[in-house]
Design goal:
The chain is an alpha/beta fold. The chain is built from 14 helices and seven strands.
């Protein structure tokens, strides 16, 4: 059996000749199960309706649009298209890359409306695309599903939180603003800031004389939880100006709850916060002085502290 790559022919197409797929499998998330006839794909209202669906927040095309605006259209993964079976033999249907095509069209719409301004070179980059053409005369019928499925089912393995945060940090170190970093990576500015702060917090732990040796990437998620909870962040005294926590005694206590306290032999006691999501319960405890006293006691635990908290969730 011929390999799938043998059915993909490198070619160049114009953006205006690409048809978004009105039967995109993504739209099943919208509860739609009525298929549009192939012959009607090119109708302006069908394409506009498909475009508007793609622009919905759940498909994250706005973030992709901003990334392309910031970095340009990088063809690291080429679009995959097939010839449209309608009357116009010069049109192609997007098999893989409907989000990218939608993002490019969105940028051109903004340019045409005067809301963005791109150079002639940028416009040329947006409008003329190198793609892979699926040769349906030889490819198996399953190819239409296998090709997008490779990306979205088995998928490109997404980086974990720490790897994302490290990337945000490194980009910030080059002088980029939070918004520029977010646009470069397809994130919201809020998320980019949270990743950056949590990475800085782990780096601060790394510099601690007593607990620095325990500042492993797997602890990153604890700090991400901290920045999702304003009362915990405030209790530790986070300062954006100084890019660190300023309440040293509380911070050292927090480290001990994550990793346990050291005895004279350097051995660690059992951690009071055994996993990152334990920070959510800590947030509850911090708002009740009596619960916090129980938690801080030698035999105190999350279970004991929450048992005395009136609105605690049952265990």
């Amino acid at each position: 059996m011929e390999k799938m790559s043998g059915f993909l022919i490198p070619t160049s197409v114009k953006l205006e000749d690409l048809l978004l797929d009105p039967n995109n499998p993504r739209f099943a998330e919208l509860g739609e199960n009525v298929e549009v006839l192939e012959a009607r794909f090119s109708e302006p209202r069908v394409q506009q309706a498909t475009f508007e669906k793609m622009k919905m927040a759940k498909f994250n095309v706005a973030e992709l649009r901003d990334t392309i605006k910031e970095l340009g259209f990088l063809p690291m993964d080429r679009l995959v298209v097939r010839k449209w079976k309608g009357l116009d033999s010069g049109k192609y249907v997007v098999v893989e890359g409907n989000r990218r095509v939608s993002a490019l069209r969105w940028l051109l719409d903004l340019h045409d409306a005067g809301k963005e301004t791109f150079s002639d070179n940028q416009l040329e980059e947006f409008k003329n695309l190198d793609v892979l053409l699926l040769d349906e005369t030889r490819a198996p019928k399953s190819a239409r599903w296998i090709l997008p499925g490779l990306r979205h089912v088995s998928g490109i393995k997404e980086w974990g939180p720490y790897q994302k945060a490290r990337t945000v940090f490194e980009l910030r170190q080059t002088g980029k603003s939070a918004q520029e970093v977010a646009q470069s990576l397809g994130l919201s500015t809020v998320e980019a800031n949270r990743l950056w702060r949590a990475f800085l917090a782990l780096e601060q732990m790394r510099s601690d004389e007593e607990y620095g040796e325990f500042a492993e990437p797997k602890l990153y998620s604890y700090f991400e939880e901290v920045f999702k909870r304003p009362n915990v962040r405030g209790w530790l005294g986070w300062s954006d100006d100084k890019q660190k926590f300023e309440k040293n005694s509380e911070l050292r206590e927090f480290y001990s709850w994550m990793k346990g306290e050291k005895n004279d032999e350097g051995e660690l006691s059992q951690a009071k916060l055994p996993e990152a999501k334990s920070v959510r319960d800590l947030s509850t405890i911090l708002d009740d002085p009596a619960a916090l006293i129980i938690f801080r006691s030698n035999t105190g635990s999350l279970t004991h502290a929450l048992a005395g908290y009136p609105n605690a969730r049952p265990y």
